[in-house]
């Protein structure tokens, strides 16, 4: 029977091969070669919901009340962020959203990230 360390090494090798295969099979938009994932020189940034429908790099000093019409499927709470210089978003997006609702105990929130071409 193989030792637990041997089994873990085998699993690690299989996962590494799967990740390499995934990197090779996903069609690229731009011809950029990434030697590793996650990209080693990634610049992770935090954003905060701000006033005037903008994302901010700094948290607001007080809470912010945002509302929209639940009955209207086109009504959304929308926030924009404009990069100061051209940027490339690579990898998985992670959103952590802290929110509360005085009228309900439980609800579902959807977060959509989209590029707006101007």
UniProtKB/TrEMBL annotation:
Residues in the signal sequence: none
Record Pfam families: PepX_C (PF08530)
GO MF annotation, one: dipeptidyl-peptidase activity
Xaa-Pro dipeptidyl-peptidase C-terminal domain segment(s): 21-112
Superkingdom per UniProt: Eukaryota
Annotated protein name in UniProt: Xaa-Pro dipeptidyl-peptidase C-terminal domain-containing protein
């Amino acid at each position: 029977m193989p030792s637990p360390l041997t089994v873990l090494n085998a699993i690690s090798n299989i996962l590494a091969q799967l990740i390499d295969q995934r990197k090779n099979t996903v069609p690229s938009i731009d011809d950029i070669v990434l030697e590793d994932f996650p990209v080693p020189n990634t610049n992770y940034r935090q954003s905060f919901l701000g006033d005037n429908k903008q994302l901010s790099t700094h948290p607001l000093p007080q809470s912010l009340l945002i509302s929209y019409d639940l009955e209207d499927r086109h009504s959304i709470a929308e926030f924009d962020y404009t990069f100061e210089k051209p940027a490339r978003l690579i990898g998985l997006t992670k959103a952590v959203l802290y929110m509360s609702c005085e009228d309900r105990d439980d609800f579902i929130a959807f977060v959509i990230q989209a590029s707006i071409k101007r």
